[in-house]
Design goal:
heterodimer, A: 77 residues, mainly alpha, 4 helices, 69% helix, globular, B: 188 residues, elongated
Chain lengths: 77, 188
């Protein structure tokens, strides 16, 4: 079962002032949730839309994706 | 037979074989998780044993849970955290081990140009970096990547909020990305 983006948003509202982004506008842990596939369809679309126009998040997304590839490979029994 | 069928047979008829079948299903997955979390195979055996003892003592507690695997992971994880808290010496040993392994890795890297060996060295390096994460990050990474649990399931197992799970896993991934930057560049 995927984590609902509204769960993230609701908890985020409680603990972090309702801001899923950094103050500078870049996505935060939504990028990692996206790479893990643990994100709602609307969250997925938000990430995909954002990284087409934000070089920094695009680079970070690739970095997280590559890191996950390394981790999965290392933990593969 | 489902987990619930096996447990019901044990509760209702004291069918020890059913209990054995149930426990054997989870022995390897639990050992794998706890061993990597604690970085101590012997302690992991004890933790899994203690987890199973709780099932034997109070099997009724599992009859109504949505996922026996998640319940067992939560108990094993809590026992592991207690163990870590009570064993400061482990931290010292882990640090010494990491230094030893890093020294070995750099030596062997110099000695061999063999591609498959390099690959295995890279995998070992990644495992070391995972082992070197702070315990909270390490357990979340293992639950997500190794055990395939969702953020929501991890929240249930650890008692964290879903947001905190997402935030901490992101931090763990960023930490690993920095420490594995050289390997990441090789993949790009």
């Amino acid at each position: 079962m995927r984590t609902s983006d509204s769960d993230l948003r609701a908890n985020d509202n409680e603990t972090r002032g309702g801001n899923l982004r950094k103050e500078d506008g870049h996505l935060r842990y939504l990028l990692t949730a996206y790479v893990f596939g643990d994100i709602s369809p609307s969250g997925r679309r938000e990430v995909e839309r954002h990284v087409t126009s934000c070089q920094q998040c695009h680079r970070e997304l690739n970095e997280i994706r590559n890191t996950l590839g390394l981790v999965e490979d290392a933990l593969d029994p | 037979m489902t987990d619930q069928d096996l447990l019901r047979a044990y509760v209702d008829s004291e069918d020890v074989d059913s209990l054995g079948t149930f426990l054997s299903r989870y022995q390897s997955p639990l050992l794998r998780f706890v061993s990597r979390f604690l970085k101590d195979d012997a302690a992991a055996q004890d933790i899994v044993q203690e987890t199973f003892l709780r099932v034997v003592r109070q099997p009724n507690r599992l009859l109504d849970v949505a996922s026996c695997h998640n319940w067992l992971l939560r108990v094993a994880r809590n026992l592991s955290v207690d163990y870590l808290r009570g064993a400061i010496r482990l931290r010292k040993q882990a640090s010494e081990l990491a230094e030893e392994s890093a020294a070995t890795a750099s030596t062997t890297a110099d000695l061999s140009a063999d591609r498959s060996l390099e690959k295995e060295e890279a995998r070992e390096r990644v495992r070391q970096e995972i082992a070197g994460l702070q315990p909270r990050h390490r357990e979340l990474m293992l639950l997500r990547v190794q055990e395939g649990k969702t953020y929501r399931e991890i929240a249930e197992i650890t008692g964290l909020t879903v947001t905190n799970v997402g935030y901490l896993i992101h931090q763990a991934m960023k930490t690993l990305a920095v420490r594995l930057q050289d390997l990441n560049e090789d993949r790009s």
